[in-house]
Amino acid sequence: MPVLEATALYKKYQLGDHQVNALNGVNFGVEKGEFVAIMGPSGSGKSTLLHLLGGLDKPSEGEVTLAGQRLSLLNDKHATLVRRRNVGFVFQFFNLLPTLTAYENIALPLIIDGQKLRKIQPQLEALLKLVGIYERRNHKPDQLSGGEQQRVALARALATQPAIVLADEPTGNLDSKNGIAIMELLRKSADDLGQTIIVVTHDTRAAAYADRVVFLKDGQISHELRFEAGASITDNLRVIIETIEILES
Known about the structure:
This protein is of the alpha/beta class. It has one domain (about 5-249): Rossmann fold. The chain has helices spanning about 45-55, 75-85, 100-110, 115-130, 145-160, 175-195, 205, 235-249; strands at about 5-15, 20-30, 35-40, 60-65, 70, 85-90, 165-170, 195-200, 210-215, 220-225. α3 packs parallel to α5 (about 145-160) and α5 (about 145-160) runs parallel beside α6 (about 175-195). The longest helix is centred in the last third of the chain and has 18 residues, at about 175-195.
């Protein structure tokens, strides 16, 4: 049974007299521990789909089932609770609170969930070490590089030990070295922690870390690509590039 599933998902926006159909009947499911990349041209509906999957927005039609819960049946308070306890978010622009240190930013979702800082300190220190930011734990965001800020954002997403991590262009503001480091950490989260990872990306190399790539076009899934078990990142990258060339031809 998928840990996250979308059924006949539509999202429509009204821009003046013009209706924009961001999603047109998307069916999508992901299994526990699976790493899926979502690719497609700008305006294809990638970020819209991610926001609906995470319960950050509501569909015009269709259903999202998250951790066994149909989001359409939940009130806002219950939906927020389900999202907080099951989903971690990583955004392109980090979204760190500027007045808090790296340590405090990572601790924030646990504190909001009612946990005591003293009891979660070992868990937080382990996360800081996992993402390679332990020595910078007392620095505020403006004292950290872009790569360091994204590592903090990833640790914050992992802090609640969510079943699902949703990442929207996590390498978009990073150089290639830091981008690779973030994707390796996400891959490790899937392999070692059994977390489900869904990444929206324009970056073909980032997508090569996934188990499966879903291609969107005009608000619909146009193609799906599953990599062979044990294939290298280089092999996956080659397959993605070849597939994109065929889809665009």
